[in-house]
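Hey team,

Filing this mostly as a record. A colleague (T.K.) asked me to run one chain through the structure pipeline before their review meeting, and I want the input and output archived in the tracker in case anyone asks later how it was produced. No errors, nothing strange. Just documentation.

Input sequence:
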Amino acid sequence: MTGKHAAPSRRPGRAATARRGGRAGQPRRPRQFAPYRAPARVGWPSAESRDAGTLAREMSGRAALRRISGIRRAASPMATAGLLMIAALAVFCFAGPLFYHADLVHVNLLHGNRPPAPGHPLGTDGNGMDVLGLLMAGGQLSLEVGAAAGLLAAMIGSAWGAVAGYVGGPVDAVLMRIVDAAVAVPTLVLLLLLSAIYTPSPAALVVVIAATSWLSTAHLVRGAALTLRSRDFVQAVRAMGGGRMRAISRHIAPNALGVITVNVSFQVADAILALATLSYLGLGVRPPSSDWGDMIAEGIRYIYNGYWWEIYPPGIAIIAAVVAFNLLGDGLRDGFGPRSPVR
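Output structure:
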């Protein structure tokens, strides 16, 4: 139709067709979009191509790397200060007798209760023995028994809590009810009861103190085991047919290393205090062996005579040891805690 009232043509002109990317007289082709493909990670197989064993090894390896990174990041100022104080105490107690020789065998009542002097930097006790020499010898026993009892308590509590948390069910209920029943009894009562049964000796004191200190560790490790048993690498071990003991020893316990490490430092501090308490009550090691608690028990008899040098040095040593291990534990807890970037 031509003329004035003719309908406009809908066919695009050459310019419009060129702008749309087509040729004149040909329809426009629909635009094709390629499907998105995620970039492949070099050296890392896809999740479909990995079997259960490979997944378990990879997850365990990455967990080990996280633990190593956590230990490196855990070197906070508090942990460093605590470690330096522990090192100073160890050098003082174990290396000090090599340079400062004191007679701790013979009793000389004529030189008893003498104040600090050039020959005796910290004075003498009621038996005429050098207080500085006794402080070094007593520190050796206190640190050895405290460290051994703390490590033994951590080992018992870790094994108990890991089995209870991973196995679950009736086993978990029975094991944790035993822990709850033991926690209900005051620790001092248990210490006095066990100390009255066994003959006091360094080995017996280690067992007695550890027998009353592993309960808190069991609670902490059980909570960690309940969280870890649902992880992929633990499920992969079970899918491969691995036993429960393998999962506990190779995966649950190593991944709870942060909790165990922090708890060990607190356990050692508590063990030193427990040993000092037993020695003060007369249930410590037998003479001539002594520790810091024995020194306080001997010096407390002269408290009204003003012989301060028989009480203050061992008391300050106990406070310094407990504060050092607590600072180390607080620093490690901050490093392994939820605020750490490792998590």
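Quick notes for T.K.: Residues 38-50, 67-72, 338-343 have pLDDT under 50 and may be disordered. The domain at 52-105+118-336 is CATH 1.10.3720.10 (MetI-like fold).
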